[in-house]
Design brief:
32% of the residues lie in helices and 21% in strands. The protein has 346 residues and is α+β, with helices and mostly antiparallel strands. The chain folds into 3 domains: 122 residues, 3-Layer(aba) Sandwich (Rossmann fold), CATH 3.40.50; 91 residues, Beta Complex (Methionyl-trna Synthetase, domain 2), CATH 2.170.220; 109 residues, Isoleucyl-tRNA Synthetase, domain 2 (Alpha-Beta Complex), CATH 3.90.740.10. A hairpin with a 6-residue loop joins strand 13 and strand 14. Helix 3 packs across helix 4. It is elongated.
């Protein structure tokens, strides 16, 4: 009996054939079908940096598996794909390569789209969304306008991670190493105050803390509760010796008579004004050190607390006593008012 050889799987030959067949048959097309229940699947849209890497598929493969599972259960699954294509990194890359940002971005998109299609995921490419397309971002603008008109969008100064070389803000994941350097160029990252837009999520704090009817794991509920960070108390206004209002939030206004000192975030706008000439060098050095840390590092319970006296004082509104003002990195400008009052044993 003649021995038959095992067939060899040749992906370059077999996969394009079946992918073309799937596309011709519209296997993964999502059309309106009132006879089937709807299911919307979405994964993170990649940034068009030029080539896919394993990290992209680390996020996409489980989403694809889930979408296929729901499709096999009879759902009409909409699983779109696209590209999150805005941002200064694209502009910087275009400048470096002496090419227009649009040409650079859409050339990368074409390459990554080709790579993604070769993987055979069940994306409906007719639903592709590219955030740099006017047809897409006009709706982003529309949503923002609605939020602004309803008082749900506002702007204020707030610190960000900033790369001085790329001249752009960085996400936490883009700041690498103990020395906190930019993942793209290796430049040490600093904290920088920028005028930014915010959404008034606090208006919905009570609703966001109601979990009835939501099948969330307890860990996720705890994360959401801590993220909202709702506290009940009072705002109290102290006055600096220069006459400026210094507002703090406290859950124990009954302890005002026991305040012995106050602490500001190093980024607080009043720090420069209240710092005396004798303390300026120490304060400036401390601020420089604090701005090189992440918020997580600054709030760590394992870290020994530190601070520097500014030389300035505030007046306690209930007894007119002079209260020394310090700065410390464990006070964050992004939490509360960026200032706290300290009472022994509280």
């Amino acid at each position: 009996m003649a021995k038959t050889e095992n067939p060899i799987y040749n992906p370059a030959e077999i996969e394009p054939k079946w992918q073309a067949r799937w596309e011709t048959d519209g296997l993964y097309h999502s059309d309106v079908d009132a006879s089937r229940p709807k299911y919307y699947a979405l994964t993170m849209l990649p940034y068009p940096s030029g080539d896919l890497h394993i990290g992209h598929w680390y996020a996409m493969t489980p989403s694809d598996a889930r979408a296929r599972y729901m499709r096999m259960r009879g759902y009409n699954v909409l699983f779109p794909m696209g590209f999150d294509a805005f941002g200064l990194p694209a502009e910087n890359a275009a400048i470096k390569n002496n090419i227009h940002p649009r040409v650079w971005t859409y050339r990368n998109i074409a390459n990554m789209r080709k790579q993604m299609r070769s993987m055979g995921a069940m994306f409906d490419w007719r639903r592709e969304a590219v955030s740099a397309d006017p047809e897409y971002y006009r709706w982003t603008q529309w949503f923002f306008t609605q939020l602004y008109n309803h008082g749900l969008a506002y702007h204020k100064m707030s610190p960000v991670d900033w790369c001085p070389n790329c001249q752009t803000t960085l996400a936490r994941e883009q700041v690498w190493g103990e020395d906190r350097h930019c993942e793209r160029c290796g430049t040490p990252v600093i904290k920088k105050d920028l005028d930014q837009w915010f959404f008034r999520i606090t208006k919905y704090a009570d609703e966001l803390l109601k979990y009835e009817g939501i099948d969330w794991p307890e860990r996720v509920r705890t994360l959401q509760t801590n993220w909202i960070g709702k506290s009940e108390g009072a705002h109290v206004v102290f006055t600096t010796e220069q006459g400026d209002r210094l507002q703090v939030f406290t859950t124990r206004p009954d302890t005002l008579w026991g305040v012995t000192f106050m602490v500001l975030a190093p980024e607080h706008p009043l720090v420069e004004k209240i710092t005396t000439a004798e303390q300026k060098t120490a304060v400036d050095e401390y601020i420089q050190q604090a701005t090189r840390q992440t918020d997580i590092q600054r709030e760590s319970t394992d870290k020994e607390k530190s601070g520097v006296f500014t030389g300035g004082y505030a007046i306690n509104p209930v007894n007119n006593e002079r209260i020394p003002i310090w700065i410390a990195d464990y006070v964050l400008m992004t939490y509360g008012t960026g200032a706290i009052m300290a009472v022994p044993a509280h």
